[in-house]
Each structure stands twice: as structure tokens, then as C-alpha cells.
Write a structure and sequence with these properties.
Layout: H1 9-32, E1 41-45, H2 48-55, H3 72-79, E2 83-87, H4 96-99, H5 104-113
Parallel strand pairs: 1-2
Length: 123
């Protein structure tokens, strides 16, 4: 069940980035118990504005309504440096196949990336 509601696209992307980062940090701790250590983990985000919000400590009007708990990402990115937010272009973002209407070419490229074979013709 959704416990908060985003009032803008930027806020929604920011909240999604925080949630993904929380999952990544949990996985980092899990694999750390097996002796696999990662100092900084790259998190790809297709929203430049949410990356700016996470990295910039200045006041923004759009931050005003974002729940305070979501600003924890700034600590992970700026202070602890365990998360590195990286911009990914829409053309290279393969996860769009799960969330958006995309062109057939991009869908096929995404399917090839995850090794899903497609039937050819009338087979």
C-alpha cells in the first residue's frame, strides 16, 4: 500500500530514487556479510532534477512538500558517499520497457539485454 503521494514528477522520481537506494544499501550489507565489499554503488536515474535535489543542500520550492524521511538520500550521496547518482539517458534506460510505452526497437533491445528470445515470424 502506498503511504505517500507525490505532487510532481520530480518528487515521484526523487522518492523512487530513495527507495531504490534503500534496497541497494540493504543488498550491500547482505553481500558484505559474505566478504564482498563495495565502497560506492552507482544508482542510475533518468531524472536530472531528482539528482540535483539529492546532491544540492540549498532550499528549493519543490522540496517543500517532500516528506523529510526522503531527504536521507542526501546523507548517502553527499556525506557518506556510498551512493553515486548517475544520469542515464532515455535511450539507454532499459527499464522503460516495464514502465512506459516505448518504440518496438527499444523494446526488442531491452528484451535482448535480459536474454528473452523472441519467436520469428509464424513459428
Amino acid at each position: 500500500m502506498q503511504d505517500t503521494m507525490a505532487l510532481s514528477t520530480t518528487e515521484a522520481e526523487y522518492m523512487a530514487t530513495v527507495e531504490a537506494s534503500k534496497e541497494i544499501l540493504w543488498l550491500r550489507g547482505l553481500i558484505g556479510t559474505f566478504g564482498i565489499i563495495h565502497d560506492t554503488i552507482q544508482v542510475y536515474c533518468d531524472s536530472q532534477s531528482s539528482i540535483y535535489l539529492a546532491k544540492d543542500c540549498m532550499y528549493h520550492k519543490r522540496k517543500k512538500y517532500i516528506n523529510v524521511r526522503y531527504h536521507r538520500i542526501r546523507h548517502w550521496v553527499v556525506i557518506e558517499k556510498v551512493i553515486d547518482l548517475v544520469k542515464i539517458s532515455t535511450k539507454k534506460n532499459l527499464t522503460d520497457m516495464m514502465t512506459k510505452t516505448i518504440l518496438v526497437e527499444k523494446f526488442r533491445a531491452s528484451m535482448n539485454f535480459i536474454n528473452v528470445l523472441q519467436k520469428q515470424g509464424g513459428e
